[in-house]
Amino acid sequence: MAKILVIDDDPDIALATRLILEGEGYTVIEAHSSQEGLAAVRQHVPDLIVLDVMMETPTAGFQTALTLRDPAPNAEFAAYRHIPIILLTAIHQTTPMRFSPDENYLPVDAFVEKPIIPVTFLRTVKALLAEKQVG
Amino acid sequence: MVGLADLLARAKTALHAESVAVYGCHPSAADHLLAVSGDPQPDAATSLRLPIGEAAYLLVAAPRLPLPTEQISALAEGFAAACEAILAHERAAAALTEAETQRLTFTRIVTHELRAPVIAMQSLLRAYLGTLKDSTDQQRDLLNRLSRRAEGLLALINDLLSLAAARANEKQQTGVPVRLLPLLEITYDHYFDQAREKRLHFSLHADADLSALATESAVMRILDNLIGNAVKYTSEGGSVRVMLSANAAHAEISVRDTGIGIPEAALEQLGEAFYRAPNAKAAGILGTGLGLVTVKQLVAQYGGTLQVQSEVGKGSTFTVCLPLA
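^ inputs. structure came back:
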């Protein structure tokens, strides 16, 4: 089964996300900050990353996604660039920024709003893993 | 307030000077004063230096004629007053900017702090419900009720914050050109799953992409409320049709549903804070009665209009017109 890294600084959200994913048989690794998350990417090489936006800073998740997807040929995380990323947001209604997946703006593969609706979330997880052909 | 450029022009005439400049100002005003003086470096040999106020300002002029002392004093006082006024204006502007920054920071913190625990609570409840294997119907019902109350609380927090943001600036604003179709598509996509779960005929039609004078966040809030409501108040198998078209000098967005409709008596009260139509409440559909208040507020802010046509049991059409860019 696929290995999924959940990066969220709220331990309760991380636990809820873990329970939903483990219920489907996925292996889950938790990280509670961008830094821990980036270290975990190297250590575990997950098949999918679930990433929170607001952590140590209001845009920490964006920064982490940008670091992971840095297109520079010699980028630090070039080897992990292919790992699909789901961004967890809770800001759909109150932010002036637009959070549609846009390759030029923010390189993530999907957005899921918090609080997670398990069915919708799992559908997105399955679709991204299927694209990557990991069960 | 008399502008400094104007004062300098008058000084030029009064002093019979070819050029005038102000030096030695209060640091925060110096750049501004020098910038408007037009001649920051008059010929030192012909300059006349006038100390003004508490030695904070200095008018430098190159007069062609000798001047009486009282004229020099009058000019000096005029400059001192002008400089004080500019400084006071700058201080007030800085205080306003600071207050606005603090307000935005506060809103952001409150948004996060208020929502985070409810979101965590709701996430844990949903996850727990998903893992429940051997539970009684009563246990499951209790958890579902808890989850529903958390959902209501979150909706209330979201709507209150939206309304607060919309009311932050009540004056009518001109706005900037905002492309409507991409925002309609984002909102349509956002509600697509919910609509599919209810087996709604959910469609988006646009003659062309239009730009309206507003802000992206205002349009997003308007669309989110109107389309969200239509999906929410339309029962299984119904339809929600979102349309964008040009109507004279306006961009017209209409959201037509075949939902529960709004009683005629309730139409007038629609848009009052916390008001909900009796049939919406009776149907047990979650709502705060704040969404349309926000929509009304935002539409008015950008010089637009909101119209509602509705019939109980048949459906509603909400039409928003915003000035075309």
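Chain B touches chain A through 35 residues (CB under 8 Å). Chain B has two domains: 4-96, 172-323.
thumbs up if we can close this ticket
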